[in-house]
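Check out a protein:
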Amino acid sequence: MTDLDQLTQSLARNLKRWRGERGFTLDQLAARAGVSRGMIIQIEQARTNPSVGTTVKLADALGVSITTLLDYEQGSPVRLVPADQTVRLWSTEAGSSTTLLVGTDARGPLELCSWRLVPGEGSRSDPHPEGTVELLHVTAGTLTLVVADIPYEMSAGTSATFEAHHPHAYRNEGTEPVELTMAVSVPPVR
């Protein structure tokens, strides 16, 4: 079984499990996530490998981290994630990327990501559920953080936190790569 097959099977199993634990019907989850009922069926039957955006929408709707939806190794109270087992969320041919380093669902999902943006590139994010908070720390370059259409310049060494239920984006408008670490805390589903 390939890594992609294993990931597809884990997502199918975990999506079914969490949808059942939350007591959501297919239609309820589809409405909460803004994802079609047919797509959820295909994911739960391991017949498709959804986009990162779809996976994030489903995780947010269920109130779990995407790590939880993709995780195929559960059980130990300590979970080590070697570098070769981190999850690349997106990347471009030019070299920009986001990597999910680790996540947890203690008191709501909490995720830690490592970002790299090459000059001229960026990433836009749809608003997250109310109560979601993001923390950023820029380690190299200058990041332009845009929250609710207001840009904020963040040079290396700068940290920020913001309520992520607003539309937001991350851009590298400089001449050197931007590297940053981001933590995202999503409130539990009620």
Q: What stands out?
A: Residues 108 and 153 are 29 Å apart (CA to CA). The chain is about 25% helix and 35% strand. The mean pLDDT is 86.
